C-alpha cells in the first residue's frame, strides 16, 4: 500500500539530505578504505532503508514499486556502494522470501531483515554459470527432513556480511531450469563458508565473494516454494531488481549531469566558460535527454508493476536502457572535465568505473536484449 503523499515526501526529503550531507562527503574515504563506516550503516537501519520493500506487518516501510524507484533515484546520487550496503535486503536477497515464503518463513526472517539485524544475499551465479542461470550445478539431495546441499556460488554481493543466503540449487534430474529449487540457507549452518572478497574495478565498499556449501544439511522447511520452482522465483525476483537498478542508474546519471554542468560553468577556455561552447552543450544535451528518457521508462514500468501488469519486458528494457545510458553519461562527464575527469580528485573517474557494473549484474545487457526481443515477439510487436 502506498504511503500518503506527505509521509512519502518527507521520506524523500530525508533520503536526499542524508545523501547530500552524510554520504557524499565520505565518498573518497569509502573508495580508499573499501568499506562503509559502521555508523553510516547504523543510520541506514534507523532510517528504515533495509526494509523499503518489506511489508509494514513485518517491520518494513512497505513501499510500492513506484515509491521504491523514486527512493533509489535519490540514493543513486552518491557512490553506489552505499546503496549496496542494504540493497540485497531490499531486493534480490529478500524478495524470494517475500514472494514465495510461507507465513512461518516470513515471520522468522522478514522482521530482522527489515531492521537490518539480518543481512541477506542472493546466491545464483556459479563459477561456470552466469547468464545461463538455469544451468546451475549446485545440488541439493533430499535426505529425510533435510536437503544435502553442495556447490559453489560466485560473485555473491554482501556475502562477507550475509547472515542468510537465498540459494538456487538443482534438486531434480532435469538439466534445465525446471530442475532448480530455492532454499533459505543461514550462514551458521555447518558446511557453509565464505571466501575472501574479490578485488574489483569499481564500487569499492561493496563486497562480492564466493560462497561454498559442503554437504550442508538444509531443513526441508527452508525450501522456498515447491521443488522445481526456484528458477521461476529467481526470475520474478530479478524483474523487480532490474527496475530498482535502473532507477539507481538514473540517479547516478542525474548526479553526473549536475556535476558536469557545474564544472562547465566554471571552467574557462578560449576566453569563456566551456559551457558556452556548442560541442560541450551537445554532450550535456545528449546526457540530459537520455537521462529523462530513462527516468520516464523506469517510472512507467514501476506504475505498471504496481497495477499488477506483466512487466518482464518493461523491466528488462528499463534496466538495459538505463544501464547503457549511465555509461554514456559517465563517459561524457569525463570528457567535459577533460584531464580533471581522469584524476581522482573530482570523483568523476570513480563514478565512471562504478557504473560499468550496472551493465553486467542483474542480467547483462545482452540478456536484456534477448528478453526484450522474446517478449516483444510474444506480444506481437
List keywords for this structure.
51% helix; 4-stranded antiparallel β-sheet; 13 helices; alpha+beta; single chain; 381 residues; 4-stranded mixed β-sheet
Overall shape: it is globular
Q: What is the N-to-C succession of helices and strands?
A: HHHHHHHEEEEEEEEHEEHHHHH
Q: How big a fraction of the residues is strand?
A: 5-15%
Annotation field: number of helices: 13
Spatial strand sequence of the major β-sheet: 1-4-5-8
Portion of residues in helices?
40-55%
Q: Tell me about the biggest sheet?
A: 4 strands, mixed
Low-confidence stretches: none
Radius of gyration in whole Å, from Cα?
A: 21 Å
Arithmetic mean pLDDT: 96
**What is the total tally of β strands?**
10
* Cα distance spanning the termini: 33 Å
* Global structural class: alpha+beta
Amino acid at each position: 500500500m502506498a504511503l500518503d503523499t506527505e509521509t512519502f515526501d518527507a521520506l524523500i526529503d530525508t533520503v536526499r539530505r542524508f545523501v547530500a550531507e552524510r554520504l557524499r562527503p565520505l565518498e573518497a574515504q569509502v573508495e580508499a578504505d573499501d568499506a562503509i563506516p559502521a555508523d553510516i550503516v547504523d543510520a541506514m537501519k534507523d532510517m528504515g532503508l533495509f526494509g523499503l520493500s518489506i511489508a509494514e506487518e513485518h517491520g518494513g516501510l512497505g513501499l510500492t514499486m513506484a515509491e521504491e524507484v523514486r527512493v533509489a533515484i535519490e540514493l543513486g546520487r552518491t557512490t553506489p556502494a552505499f546503496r549496496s550496503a542494504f540493497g540485497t535486503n531490499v531486493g534480490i536477497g529478500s524478495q524470494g522470501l517475500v514472494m514465495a515464503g510461507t507465513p512461518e518463513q516470513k515471520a522468522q526472517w522478514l522482521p530482522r531483515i527489515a531492521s537490518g539485524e539480518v543481512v541477506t544475499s542472493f546466491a545464483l551465479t556459479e563459477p561456470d554459470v552466469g547468464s545461463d542461470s538455469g544451468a546451475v550445478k549446485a545440488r541439493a539431495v533430499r535426505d529425510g527432513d533435510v536437503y544435502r546441499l553442495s556447490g559453489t556460488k560466485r560473485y555473491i554481493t554482501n556475502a562477507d556480511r550475509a547472515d542468510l543466503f537465498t540459494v538456487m540449487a538443482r534438486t531434480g534430474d532435469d538439466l534445465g531450469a525446471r530442475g532448480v529449487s530455492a532454499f533459505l540457507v543461514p550462514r551458521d549452518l555447518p558446511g557453509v563458508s565464505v571466501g575472501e572478497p574479490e578485488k574489483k574495478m569499481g564500487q569499492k565498499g561493496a563486497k562480492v565473494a564466493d560462497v561454498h556449501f559442503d554437504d550442508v544439511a538444509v531443513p526441508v522447511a527452508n525450501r522456498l516454494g515447491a521443488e522445481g520452482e526456484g528458477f521461476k522465483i529467481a526470475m520474478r525476483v530479478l524483474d523487480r531488481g532490474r527496475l530498482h537498478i535502473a532507477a539507481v542508474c538514473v540517479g547516478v546519471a542525474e548526479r553526473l549531469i549536475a556535476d558536469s554542468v557545474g564544472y562547465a560553468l566554471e571552467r574557462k577556455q578560449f576566453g569563456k566558460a566551456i559551457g558556452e561552447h556548442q560541442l560541450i552543450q551537445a554532450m550535456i544535451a545528449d546526457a540530459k535527454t537520455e537521462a529523462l528518457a530513462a527516468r520516464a521508462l523506469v517510472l512507467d514500468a514501476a506504475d505498471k508493476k504496481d497495477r499488477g501488469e506483466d512487466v518482464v519486458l518493461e523491466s528488462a528494457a528499463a534496466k538495459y536502457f538505463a544501464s547503457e545510458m549511465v555509461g554514456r553519461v559517465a563517459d561524457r562527464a569525463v570528457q567535459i572535465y577533460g584531464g580533471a575527469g581522469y584524476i581522482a580528485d573530482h570523483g568523476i573517474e570513480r563514478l565512471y568505473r562504478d557504473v560499468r557494473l550496472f551493465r553486467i549484474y542483474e542480467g547483462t545487457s545482452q540478456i536484456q536484449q534477448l528478453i526484450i526481443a522474446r517478449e516483444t515477439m510474444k506480444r506481437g510487436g
